[in-house]
Amino acid sequence: MPGKVITITSGKGGVGKTTATANIAAALALINFKVICIDADIGLRNLDVVLGLENRIVYDLVDVIEGRCRLRQAMIRDKRLPELYLIPAAQTRDKSAVSPSDMVRLCDELRPDFDWILIDSPAGIERGFRNAISPANIIVVVTNPEISAVRDADRIIGLIEAEEKGPAQLIINRIKPEMVKKGDMLSPDDVLELLAVDLLGLIPEDEMVVTSTNRGAPVVLEEKSRAGQAFRNIGQRITGEKVPFVPIEEQRGFFTQIGKMFRKG
Amino acid sequence: MAGLFNRILNRQPNSAYQAKERMKLVLVHDRSNLSPQALEQLKDELIEVISRYVNIDSEGTSVEIAQEGREQRLIADIPIKATPKRRIG
Q1: How confident is residue B87, by pLDDT bands cut at 50, 70 and 90?
Q2: DSSP A149-203
Q3: Is A114 helix (H, G, I), strand (E, B) or coil?
Q4: How high is the pLDDT of residue A1?
Q5: Chain B residue with minimum CA distance to A196
Q6: Distance of CA A151 to CAs A146, A174, B6, Å?
Q7: Confidence check: pLDDT of A221 > 50
Q8: Which of B14, B26, B67 sits opposite A151 (nearest CB)?
Q9: Higher pLDDT, A95 or B21
Q10: How confident is the model at residue A264 (pLDDT cuts 50, 70, 90)?
Q11: What phi, psi does A117 have (nearest 5°)?
Q12: For residue A130, what are the domain limits?
């Protein structure tokens, strides 16, 4: 079966698109799918450092498109997850170096060899976003439970619908369960009611995302990380498994749960 | 409901509630590309046009954007005034 293209986008910058791309890709590779991710954020390359592959770049996306190298030469294979590959973005060019039809052609070339092709979209609604969504079979929108990210997600979801690329699937990232409980943060239900879109995953705020990104290793490789678990669940949902969503009240640390048991007793 | 509850207690509603209520309004206008001012103008012009044909209650008229999932609908509620029948003879 030819591979499917998943584009990860958000509208607003800084909500965790690149982290989500790296971790969904790694989650799929962990369950033995052959995965390639493409960094479509030309000029602001980052997926390479999040995956810890920055020292191995020779050629990039623009080199492939402009014919300076063969497609194979621009693919970097992850040593920890041999089923995972990356095509990095060019750092010294801009979004106009690539067109939507270039992206469609590139993905068509990759489809026979991979199960999943993930595209990390740049922020914004301009050329880079158009490039990233043009070959997509599935579009994932990442947002945070805060008003500016939700508003931009709504705009992006509208554009995806207008392009007849929907329905978009939503990931709500950086949820703080304690704040939600106190009524100081939009709950996943609030965000879903506002955006009226399908839910793909809920990612709790987790310091291990920071530490694992520092090391250049996706957090899905951390057995105990809650965010890692949430991304592993997303990987399974993408492959069609029905993984239940953990209610936000239960997304607390092991020790808090134990402490609560003692207080109750 | 929570808003009413908070008003009775003279308490500021929690910030997540405020965020949600604000976002509801913002998204309605973002999606339709219709500002609250433009909607008000649309209502005034609608009243003007319809009044040429029927005697309507302009005070009781409302024009709103209703939501159903991501679908939006412009809903106008325009009460018609009863016209007094002329007596013959």
Answers
A1: low
A2: HHHHHHHHHHHHHHTT----EEEEEEE-HHHHHTTSS--HHHHHHHH--EEEEEE
A3: coil
A4: 84
A5: B69
A6: 9, 16, 26
A7: yes
A8: B26
A9: B21
A10: very low
A11: -120, 115
A12: 4-264
Give all strands of the β-sheet with A169-175 in edge-to-edge order.
A76-77, A84-87, A35-39, A116-120, A4-9, A138-143, A169-175, A198-204
Nearest residue of B to residue A168, measured between CA atoms:
B70
Task: Specify the number of domains making up chain A.
Answer: 1
Give the closest of A182, A186, A197 to B19, CB-based.
Answer: A186
CA distance B29 to chain A (A): 11
Interface test with A, best of B15, B17, B20, B30 (most A CBs within 10 A): B20
Q: Is the pLDDT of residue B4 over 50?
A: yes
| Residue A71 burial (10 A CB sphere; 0-12, 13-18, 19+) | middle
B43 — pLDDT class (breaks 50, 70, 90): very high
Chain B partners within 8 Å of A156 (Cβ): none
Domain ranges of chain B: 1-33, 35-83
For residue B19, the one-letter residue type is A
DSSP readout, chain B? -HHHHHHHTT-PPPHHHHHHHHHHHHHHHHHHT--HHHHHHHHHHHHHHHHTTS-B-STT-EEEEEEETTEEEEEEE-PBPPPPPPPP-
Q: What is the mean pLDDT of chain B?
A: 87
Structure tokens given for A136? 């997509």
Q: What pLDDT score was predicted for residue A265? A: 42
Average pLDDT over residues B52-74: 93
Is the backbone peptide bond immediately before A167 cis, with ω within 30 degrees of 0?
yes
Residue recorded with tokens 């740049």:
A122
Nearest alpha carbon to residue A57 among A252, A49, A251? A49
Q: What are phi and psi of A143, to 5 degrees?
A: -140, 170
Tell me phi and psi for residue A144, to 5 degrees: -115, 160
Supply the pTM of this predicted model.
Answer: 0.88
Q: For residue range A13-62, list pLDDT tens digits in order.
A: 999 999 999 999 999 999 999 999 999 999 999 999 999 999 999 999 99
